[in-house]
Amino acid sequence: MTDTYACGITMHRPLGDLYDILNIDDKLPTDAIRGLFEDEELTDDQRYAWKALSDPFYSVVYRCERNTKALYDAGFFDDGLPQMASTYKAWSAKNMTTSIQKVIDNIEKLIAAGGTRAAVLLTTGGMAPIHNGHIAMMEVAREQIERKNNLTVVGGFFAPGHDSYVGQKYNGTAAIPAAHRVAMVELATRDSDWLEVDPWAARYMPAELNFTDVYSRLAMYLLAHLKSVARGLRYIDLYYVCGSDNAGFVNAIARSIVVDRTEVSSKAAREGDHAILHPKVAEYLKNYKSTDTGNLPYLIRNEEDDAISGYANTMPGGMAELTRRRIQLQSTIRLGIAQVFKSLGHEHKVHLLSTSDQRTRALEVIAGRKTISLDPFFSGDERIDSTRYFSLSQAQFKPLFRAARVGHLTIRDQASLIDPGEYVLVEDDSVTGETINSARANLSEDVKITDVVLLSDFADYAGTDYYDVVDMRDFIVGSADGGLSVVTPRGEHARAPYALPYVSLRSRAKIPAEAEIEISRIIWQANVRFFAGSNITVSGGSLAFLRLVEDLGFDNQMLMEDFCQLHVDTLLESV
Question: What is the rounded average pLDDT of the residues 38-52?
Fold first, then answer.
């Protein structure tokens, strides 16, 4: 038989006893059932029975009630995917898909205040789009859980559903693509000190999942990443939050809380009631279908071999082969970005800018004067190496703080070593002026800055408008000073390549949300070819990159080619 949900989606449900359908003993443990039938052709009824009885939550519901109506009321459906055990293995703790920086910050505050009991909240749904009612539901749940259970909620996650589910709701009227729904949750929670998006199910899975799978995966994920920071706590519980229209879900997960549903709905927002949305979400929802972003050039600074020279000693064929591969990689990435822009109707031309040419022209203007360099590839007479650090695997709208680059003294200590005198300050560019202002603030009074030279002023297109400018080294895995400066779950300062799941290409490189997955695949695939057959291991990358991979649990002797291929494979799981 089929069941029809309120949103209009129909799901298959068998009528007979599930154990009889599979012809197995009803005393067989869930783990044992999970290992059965994986390579067999199953009927719809058999598949449904197998999925339900091997789910650690729904199997309990069925054992207690012994009817599929109870499973239906608790939200179960056959997702059509292989058993989630294999998916959990593929997306283990090593794949940092969900930011937990806010959780970590709040745990540290809780421990400092003497607290020992914490909780994290999770809710799932279409979120097409997220609205004020969703936020209010989590706030109410937080207050009730803290009051009734005498603990502190340190984080809350919105996990939007997959397109395969949301696209069917209400005859397709809810079909806002996952990339945009995730982006809107990021905007809605941007200023919250505890709410985040969990994009795993929407962005990285090939189909819609049961909410119990999303719950199980987040529980495992938090356990893996919070071990070190949470040692001072007695425990951290994960609670599932749902509206009263899904009250039956609590039968599947004991740690659940039902909040009375308000009259606010995503449907109303889609039909034009933007008053129920965060202003940034309302603006995004209004404009996300527009493909006209102008025709300004998209610029990529090309550091040529400077950022990858560390690989020369271990690359077969030495520097000549390294240069050949670098040219191939940068061409693949440049053309890939250009092609994606074109496919979306964007008119941006993608150009490479030679940083060596910029340095040569800048030196002519500097004319022998002493310099303090803020740019990693301009040597200078003196230098201050600083960078902005961001949360890992987050929207990365704004930095957490500024500090020294990995492997360098503190900014103040670097500045204190600079001899008195007059200097020209050299920086690659200046959008906000923050790097320059930070350097000036740390210099002693007897160090005088007589001029500021920006390398970008000597580039092609200098003085003209452009769509965005990025650095090629940020796309090369393990390159010197390449990638976004991030803070790992254990508090390490590290660098992550510009690609999902670690870096938001939308905020850091102005890649359209709907193209982030595709561009990320192109970047990882280009790196696979760059390292192919070289026998270079991840330990051959920069110190900052090595800190990232070791913190996430990768073997530092893993081949770089395999490391990159793993990310290609996992991104290919999404649709």
Answer: 88
pLDDT band, very low/low/confident/very high, at 404 (cuts 50, 70, 90): very high
What lies within 8 Å, CB to CB, of 330 at 6+ separation is 300, 302, 352, 472
Locus of tokens 């970047």: 523
Spatial neighbors of 66 by CB under 8 A, at least 6 apart, are: 17
From the CB of residue 360, how many other CB atoms can be counted at a distance below 10 Å? 11
What is the residue extent of each domain of the chain?
2-78, 90-287, 298-354+464-571, 367-458
Residues 483 and 508: their CA atoms lie apart, in Å, by 10
Q: Model confidence over 179-201: pLDDT tens digits?
A: 999 999 999 999 999 999 999 99
Question: Contact at 8 Å (CB) between 222 and 100?
Answer: yes
Residue 552 pairs with which residues in a beta bridge? none
Determine the CATH number of domain 90-287.
Answer: 3.40.50.620
CA angle, corner 10, sides to 5 and 16, nearest 5? 100
* 461 contacts: CB under 8 Å, gap ≥ 6: 297, 299, 351, 353
What integer is the mean pLDDT of 276-287? 94
pTM summary value: 0.93
> Using an 8 Å Cβ cutoff, are 499 and 527 in contact?
no
H or E segment to which residue 485 belongs = strand 484-487
**6 alpha carbon, distance to own chain's centre:** 32
Rounded Cα distance between 350 and 511, Å, is 12
Mean pLDDT check: name the lowest of 72-86, 497-511, 520-534.
Answer: 72-86
* Residue 250: both structure tokens together: 């609590």
Question: 347 is written with which tokens?
Answer: 């008119």
Among candidate residues 344, 285, 272, the one with its CA nearest the CA of residue 515: 344
Sign of CA dihedral 277, 278, 279, 280: negative
What average pLDDT score do residues 421-426 get?
97
d(CA 52, CA 30): 10
In whole angstroms, give the CA distance from residue 544 to residue 496.
8
Q: In whole angstroms, what is the distance from residue 412 CA to residue 434 CA?
A: 15
